[in-house]
Amino acid sequence: MPPFDKDFFMAAGLLFERERGVPLDPSDHDGIRDAGLDSATTGEVAARVWTALSEDLSEESRGAAYWALGKSYRKEEKDRLVSALKIEVGRRAAVAYQIMIALDNLDEPVFSPDRSGYSVLEAAQNLADAERYLAAIR
Q1: Do 99 and 81 touch, CB atoms closer than 8 A?
Q2: Residue 47 has what pLDDT?
Q3: Among residues 84, 112, 113, which one has the least CA distance to residue 99?
Q4: Which of 63, 93, 123, 130 is least crowded, fewest Cβ atoms below 10 Å from its Cβ?
């Protein structure tokens, strides 16, 4: 099994996009193949990303893993993403932001409707939105 590194998470995200019909460059297909994911299902890849997240990953790797899951648009990941957001909102704003994007991709109202856009650089606003969202779903 290839290591859980940024190349693996990039390939996982690209595989999710490919399966949703997003056109990829030839080098993207190479990355999926090089990560050993070319014949994997989206469910298998999602499971591997969650397995990686159960390990002691760096902040950068956790962000990349949630970025990849955000590309999947898999509704069945919602509860796990919400649980992860509860942890990361008090840990690392940049990682929480990636989870928020993944939830937003599932049409969850995680960002305030008053915002016209969002950025990882808007940490205070993102954390306020995350806390509001989590309080509303309790």
Answers
A1: yes
A2: 97
A3: 84
A4: 123
